Amino acid sequence: MTLTSTDLATEFKAAFREHPAGIALITAASFAGPVGLTASSVASVSVDPAALVFSVTRTTGSAGLILGAETFLVHLLDARHADIAGEFAVSGGERFTPEQGWATLSTGEPHLTTARVALRCRSLQQVPVGSSMLVVSEVLDIHVAPAPATALPLIYHDRTFRAAGDPL
C-alpha cells in the first residue's frame, strides 16, 4: 500500500502516539527572562563525552530562545511533575511560579528543584530536519535531588502525561 504524504504524516503521528516516551523539561535564562518547554524526545547519546539529544518542532518562541542560550537545563521528570509538564507543553501555560518550586542556579538557569535530575548542557550541534531542529548537547554538570521512594517515571502516551505503570 502506497501512502500519500498526508497519509504518511497521519500514520507517523499515530504510531508515535502509541509509543510511550519519557518526559523532560528544558529551561534556560534568556534576555526575555526564564524560558522552558516540555520535551519527549530526550535521549542519551554518549558517556564520554557525556552527551544527550533532543528535538524541538520549531525554532521560535521558547524553543528559539533555548536554542540561542549558551547553556540550558534538561530536567528529567517523574509523575509528581505531570501538571508542570502540561503547563510547559502549551502556549500561555503557568510557568516558573513559586508554587512549582523554581530556583536559579549560580550559572543563571532556572532550576526545578524537585526534579530528580537536572543536566546542565550546552549545544554542540543543531541539525535542521524538516521543520524541526535536532540538538546534540554536551552535559556540563548534573544536579541530583532526592526523589520519594514512591516516585514513578512520567511518560507521555496518547497525548496524555501519566505515571509509568498506570493503565494505558
Total number of beta strands: 12
Strand order of the largest sheet: 3-2-6-9-10-5-4
Q: Any idea what the CATH superfamily is called?
A: Electron Transport, Fmn-binding Protein, Chain A
Uncertain spans: none
Q: What's the rounded overall pLDDT mean? A: 92
Distance between the termini: 29 Å
Largest sheet: 7 strands, antiparallel
In terms of structural class, how would the helical and strand content be classed?
alpha+beta
CATH class: Mainly Beta
Helix residue percentage: 10-25%
Overall geometry: globular
Task: Quickly give the CATH architecture.
Answer: Roll
Provide a descriptive summary of the structure in words:
The protein contains 3 helices and 12 strands; from the N terminus they run H-E-E-E-E-E-H-E-H-E-E-E-E-E-E. It has one domain: Pnp Oxidase, Chain A (Roll), CATH 2.30.110. A hairpin with a 2-residue loop joins strand 11 and strand 12. With 168 residues, it is of the alpha+beta class. Strands 3-2-6-9-10-5-4 form a 7-stranded antiparallel sheet. Strands 1-11-12 form a 3-stranded antiparallel sheet, with helices on one face.
Detail the topology: elements first, then pairings:
Layout: H1 5-17, E1 21-22, E2 24-30, E3 33-39, E4 43-47, E5 50-56, H2 61-68, E6 72-76, H3 82-88, E7 102-104, E8 110-112, E9 117-129, E10 132-144, E11 154-157, E12 160-163
Antiparallel strand pairs: 1-11, 2-3, 2-6, 4-5, 5-10, 6-9, 7-8, 9-10, 11-12
